[in-house]
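Need residues for this backbone.
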């Protein structure tokens, strides 16, 4: 049972990592980010990716080897909704991640990135949507864990 608790804790910590990094990016992004802000966003986005990988690996380990068993999860519509939201959040994160990576040419020279108004508005909107979808994932996780919808 201790291993179940350790996997659950790892899953929750990774979830908190996702929430924290998206919120940090949302709070930090600006129309004219400084060099320091840009570097923080780039580093934060790496932690975001790492957290996402941990969520997937640990989450699927929990589904197939721990907790209630794959039959419970695969029969649960909220499990599918939660996974769908996770995929959607991941897809929405592609544009900001690509932009942060492209800033690397400027930040490697110690310069702040040049951000167009469109780029700023798009990144801010995508991060906002991701935050809202994370709330939806929390509801799905809660309903799923209680077997609602089965």
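Answer:
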């Amino acid at each position: 049972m201790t291993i179940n608790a350790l996997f659950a804790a790892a899953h929750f910590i990774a979830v908190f990592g996702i929430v924290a990094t998206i919120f940090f990016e949302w709070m930090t992004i600006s129309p004219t980010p400084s060099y320091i802000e840009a570097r923080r966003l780039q580093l934060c986005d790496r932690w975001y990716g790492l957290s996402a990988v941990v969520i997937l690996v640990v989450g699927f380990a929990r589904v197939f080897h721990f907790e209630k068993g794959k039959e419970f999860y695969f029969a649960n519509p909220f499990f599918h909704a939660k996974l769908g939201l996770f995929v959607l959040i991941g897809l929405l994160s592609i544009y900001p991640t690509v932009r942060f990576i492209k800033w690397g040419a400027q930040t490697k020279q110690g310069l702040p990135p040049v951000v167009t108004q469109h780029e700023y508005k798009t990144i801010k909107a995508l991060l906002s949507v991701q935050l809202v979808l994370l709330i939806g994932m929390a509801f799905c996780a809660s309903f799923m864990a209680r077997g609602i919808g089965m």
